[in-house]
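Kindly inspect this one:
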Amino acid sequence: MASVVAFSLDTVSLGLSSIGALIELIGLLGGPIGEGGALAAYQPLNAFEGYLGGASAIITTLNDVAITGETYFTSDPQPELVLGSDTTIAVTTAALGGLDPEAASDTLINSAGWANDLYRLAGGKGFLQTHIGLTGFYLTFDQP
């Protein structure tokens, strides 16, 4: 259920950033002034889209901790926090999207998160883990 909610939020985020990309494309026709106006027009959509991405990342993380167990803390052989594939992707796309005020690249970022949601809802296997320990972090990959 939580993954369906996250997918729904990510779908709306992708739609909003796509609308923003279209606004920016139209703004290019007006030269620098038109593009500046397009960027300004997109910012309210970008803020809302960022909130949706953050909510999706929180829901995904809670799902991975409480339901799937893919995000967890371990102390064997050393203390580390292990972020599951969905948490890693959701947090990364939300963070990158939040840092990017431009709609076209935001649409690409949102597309990656949305595609992962769809892949996992269709029964795809998680393929990435992020391990955060006392001395640093590393990623592990599995064949999906």
Notes: Residues 2-141 form one domain.
